[in-house]
Amino acid sequence: MQTPADWFPALIRCGLTDATxxxxxxxxxEGAARLAYQHxxxxxxxxxxxxxxxxxxxxxxxxxxxxxxxxxxxxETQTMELDKLxxxxxxxxxxxxxxxxxxxxxxxxxxSMREMxxxxxxxxxxxxxxxxxxxxxMGYVFRTESDHEYIWKKPGLVTVELHKHLIPSYNTDYYxxxxxxxxxxxxxxGCPGRYTFSxxxxxxxxxxHFAKHYRAGGIGVKQVMxxxxxxxxxxxxxxxxxxxxxxxxxLDVFHRHVVAMLDVWFADGTPTPQTEELTRFxxxxxxxxxxxxxxxxxALREAQLGTPVDKVQANKWRSALFPPRSVIAASWPVVDKVxxxxxxFWIVRGLRAVxxxxxxxxxxxNKVRDMTPQSIQTYEQRLQLVGLDFHxxxxxA
Length: 397
Known about the structure:
Elements: H1 4-16, H2 29-39, H3 42-51, H4 59-91, E1 96-98, H5 101-104, E2 119-123, H6 128-137, E3 141-145, E4 149-154, E5 158-163, H7 172-178, E6 186-187, E7 195-196, H8 199-215, H9 221-233, H10 239-248, H11 252-267, H12 273-285, H13 291-304, H14 309-321, H15 325-331, H16 334-337, H17 342-356, H18 358-369, H19 373-386, H20 391-396
Parallel strand pairs: 2-5
Antiparallel strand pairs: 1-2, 3-4, 4-5, 6-7
Helix pairs in contact: 1-3, 1-12, 2-3, 3-4, 8-9, 8-10, 11-12, 13-18, 13-19, 14-18, 17-18
């Protein structure tokens, strides 16, 4: 019996190209739709299934069509809002550099096939006070700030992630290479304030972003499509320059295996143990990876940064059940003033979780449960097979 990793790549290929799709005997239309939803590729899968002769009137196909239509609407809204926002940025002298899906949509047979949860834009941090005022004036509401992003949302329309830098600083190995990203930025002629990267630097960033998510717990099919379409559209890239950059990032081996996987997916290449592992991991990951994958990646990262592997899970159990004062103070600030109250609020937090937040508590505890020494070792072996690890972060720490 075939697994999704055996037939889903062919479905993606058929949706993006004119390739013939031969569905296996035990093919499940429901299973294909479920993967399409998990990976946010409804339009690609719907197109492929139509070409393969699926029953257009079946409930599954009608639902896929509905979701595809919704993706078209979201795409148009995101494009319109981005155009308005960047026009105002240009009027106010704000520098901006669109990233990821924003610049990749045009490579797809239809832009709506590249679904996006948000719009990514690199900004200059020193301009953020002015940018924040612009966002408020345009109806955006500030949501949160992370290590590398300011996240704003226009209710009912679009979420915009304003990047302080390209890669989170806690990915110290990749961050050391990219910095905030502006060193490699090039102004776009005739577009005030708008910047871009060279074809090669764009590809290096896309691939480093792919690797960052892969080793951190999973990456989806969307990013595989991005890489293949970008390579198809830019066959004249300076491959020597790209190879040099990827070598600096310690991603040359991983890149070789990923390119081989793309050849298997889209050009009938010969599978290898590495391409099979990559395909299986990606198809199983969904759009953002799995909770188990994230937990094992987090544990492996700590182990490779110096924590004894048999201590990782114990430390996580301790912090999950008895969080440090800074975590408790986020909900009960009085703890900062009276540290002796910390044990009391551990109990309060536990009771709140039992009676009001059981689901989130279960997710948190299951995450720690998956951080066994054996699972850490297995995850490390899976990464090593395809040429990845966290050791570069240790060197930059």
